Prior knowledge:
Blueprint: H1 4-73, H2 80-152, H3 157-162
Helix pairs in contact: 1-2
Amino acid sequence: RPDLAAALRELRSQYEALAARNLQAAEDWYRARCARLHERAARSQEAVRASRREAGECRRQLQARLVEMESLRGAHQSLERQLQELEERHNAEAAGLQDTIGQLEDDLRNTKNEMARHLREYQDLLNVKMALDIEIAAYRKLLEGEETLFNMGSGGLPSLNSLPSPTYSFQPRSFSSST
């Protein structure tokens, strides 16, 4: 006569070990992914700050150049030709600064979009973790139900034979990360 209690304990310990390994692997994967996302977010935030500082500095430079250009217009008639050369040079610099500001604003917009994408990925990771937690809880409940069913029917073998034999299949999920 086989020792069913020992077999069930062995089966339960195997399922618990498998569930613990799966949980640990999922948590390790989740932590690594979160660490990378936090690192990217920190770099993106620093890039946004640097872009804002640079845009402010460009605006100040542009303002300073425009003030300087206006002061030169009031100069003497003999400086009229030099003033025109300065105006052309300052206009070129102003256009360059405007291009730089436009480029920095594009970079800022791209960085914001990237941060939004990182947030969506973080939410997806949280959803995967919750699904894994639910699945582990379901396996535990299933094991507890089997143990309860076994304990209820341990009075005699005929009571076990009267219950339909449940069949379970384990299908591990595979997760892939998208970057």
